[in-house]
Design a protein that fits this description.
The protein has about 180 residues and is mostly helical. It is built from four helices and no strands. Helix 1 packs antiparallel against helix 2 and helix 2 packs antiparallel against helix 3. The longest helix is centred in the C-terminal third of the chain and has 41 residues.
């Protein structure tokens, strides 16, 4: 049985990560496109400076909480939780090796002049952002399915005459 704190952490941190990336993809990114380039570069640089420690911490907590969920789960839910953890880690890798290097370039552009291919570089940044957002969102959905499934097992075990018994079936039977 998964403890409530493990389930809560596994829902909270990946959910916050998916939400933060999603907000950026739906709102911030499109707002960036509407302002003059110098404003975009200045704001992008300031936002990344503030986001850096917050998002790194959130990504770490999301990876750890989904990994703990995998360790504490059994059979199919374990593999689903491990997949969620892997996807969350992929979102970190995409950020670290995709978005962050471009953020460093944008910081220089804010203080000077962007290169002639800046539009292509910004398009790559957006592609990396949509990739990490998708990974985080899929990881969150996977965690939701595990937590809902484990809740069904908990309810099954609380039925009269079932106390202390293991469930007769897996929360996610193979088809």
């Amino acid at each position: 049985m998964l403890s409530k704190s493990v389930r809560a952490a596994a829902l909270l941190f990946p959910g916050l990560l998916a939400g933060a990336f999603g907000y950026g993809a739906v709102n911030v990114l499109y707002a960036f496109r509407e302002v003059p380039l110098d404003v975009r570069f200045t704001f992008h640089t300031a936002l990344m400076r503030v986001n850096g420690p917050v998002m790194q911490t959130l990504m770490g907590l999301a990876v750890l909480s989904t990994l703990l969920l995998a360790v504490r789960s059994k059979s199919r839910p374990r593999w689903v939780a491990a997949s969620a953890s892997a996807l969350t880690f992929v979102s970190f890798l995409v950020t670290r090796f995709g978005n962050v290097p471009i953020n460093q370039q944008i910081k220089h552009w804010a203080a000077g002049t962007p290169p002639s291919d800046y539009a292509e570089i910004l398009r790559r940044w957006e592609l990396f952002h949509f990739t990490r957002t998708g990974c985080a969102l899929i990881a969150f959905v996977l965690v939701i399915t595990i937590v809902i499934g484990s809740g069904a097992i908990d309810e099954h075990n609380r039925q009269p005459g079932r106390a202390g018994r293991k469930p007769a079936i897996d929360a996610h039977p193979a088809h």
